[in-house]
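Handout, section B. The chain below has 337 residues.
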Amino acid sequence: MNTTTLSSLPATAPAPARGLSLKALPVLLGFLVLALLPLGLTGFYVELTMKIMILALFALSLELLVGQTGLVAFGHAGFFGIGAYVAALLTPQSGPASLWWLLPAAMGAAGLYALAVGALSLRTKGVYFIMITLAFAQMAYFVFHDTPVGGGSDGIYLYFKPEVLLGEVRLLDLDAGPTFYYFVLGCLVATFTLLALLLRSRFGRALAGIKANEQRMRAAGFATYPYKLGAFVLSAMLAGLAGFLYALKDGFVNPEILSWHQSGAVLLMIILGGLGHLRGALLGALAFTLLQELYQSEAIFGTFAKHWQLSLGLTIIAFVALLPHGLIGLLQRKGDK
């Protein structure tokens, strides 16, 4: 590890934010609201909230790569899908698997694939990096789509959620009541906290320096490649966690969750929320999902609801044009960056 001091990092690398507690307050209140929601909501609204939380976790994973490191990837759905398929393929048809090994297996598989992809793709830059990450994601897509590994184009069902056992004692059953909802919420809170702490560490400041001026970082004596590879693998593992939760929620996975459409959707989420902000990833996932549900509603839009992609696309264009800093710009004080 390079022994260059932190003072040699580019001036544009952010120091720990002042007023952190004030900035964290809306996030803490949001998590509190999410914790209380199952007490007043049931059925569709709880399922929708879980979907938003899982997509928010997925968006956070890409925010680490794009918003914090400056590596625009267009194949993140590959890691999301690998996490989902590992959960489905390793869960027995006769009963629940143990969460102790199933969750690490899903995240580890996504991380191992990212290690191979990153080792090659991070040697390129710009549009070449974008296209290589897309190519590797499409390779994973066609493996599951064109082979019987995961049921082909029909996908595969997952009939049991995992459980946590200590000897003969069941400590956690994700099929019991609202347990899975709070497990998803716990994963989201843990991921947000992990990334918030990481970005204020030496590693996070190095990533900020790479985003601002990688050439200057190298001139300061930093080997930037290991930092970028570390961020790439961690980002993929978090995407694998989101895919794992997605598979457990729906009980079904198919190759479409690895397609470039999914990679584009999560990229739109962090752009909509505001690049460079963890809170922006949360806002973007919330806004994107609610807009999608709104435009798909036949009760509101009638037969035009089947053209919801057009309405959603026009809305996102309007948001980007009117809010160049994303939705997070609405929450920031004037002049606050």
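Note. The two ends are 31 Å apart (CA to CA). Compare this with the example in section A.
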